[in-house]
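Worked problem 6 (solution included).
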Amino acid sequence: MKKNLLNFIETNMEKLDFDGNLEVSWQKKQHTFTLDLTFYAENKAQEVILDMQEVESDEPIISFVDSILLYDRTKFDPKNVQSDYLVCLPFEGKKGWTLAQGKAFFTYLQIVLDNGESDLLDFLNNKEADIFELEWSNEEYEKVLKSIEDGQTKRLLYPQY
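Solution. The predicted structure is:
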């Protein structure tokens, strides 16, 4: 079977070292993929935590969910939904991504997940921390992409349906 963008994403999500939950969904009509990242952490002190919707929780296990949007730049404009996602990254229509873009994405996503797990624990264990949020740096992602030598010409095509 020839690798396409969707099965590349699914395969590489399984390889990530992450204690939470990772899911990918394909919105065929919009030509987008959504990657949901769910973090779980123990709230040992059962501190009351206020989420972004101002809902309070003192549950012993808290969850934090963020999402990444991958979109077809020829068919979808993320302008109206950007604030709903950690990051919105384009792909080139039916051409998808280069293999280098795919490798860079998952290399940098592992860094984001590692930092996120650490930052969430710091947030729960440090009374001085007021807010927890994942951070994505386009500059750091671009550095990772530039460091990948192979895969500049091989394509991960958008899947046919």
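Discussion: Strands lie at 21-27, 32-42, 49-50, 56-57, 61-72, 87-91, 97-98, 155-156.
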